[in-house]
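Appendix B, Record 12. Input sequence as logged:
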Amino acid sequence: MNINELAENLGLEPDEYLEILELLADSGKADIASLEEAIAANDAEGVVRAAHSLKGASANLGLTELSETAKDMEFKAREQDFNGIAEKMRVLKAKFAPVVELFHTSSP
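Logged structural output:
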């Protein structure tokens, strides 16, 4: 993840981008927890809500792979299609992990 490039693409300074990215890290953790709960309960509407939230936030920050994965999950849930959703969840968590790790490694 190239913070300088992502920030520049949005017309932000790297430190400004990191502040916003940290908000995504926090809200994204909640969205992922909601997704896991919704998937476990076969709650399509819950998956749609959480995936939509994560899709929009990550798209706004230029994290297209994360956004696309969330979008895929959202559309599968809209179709009530849970086939393969666990694998999509695994991919989503893998794409989200660098965002979270960025702030864990920078903390004292």
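Residues 14-40 form the longest helix (27 residues).
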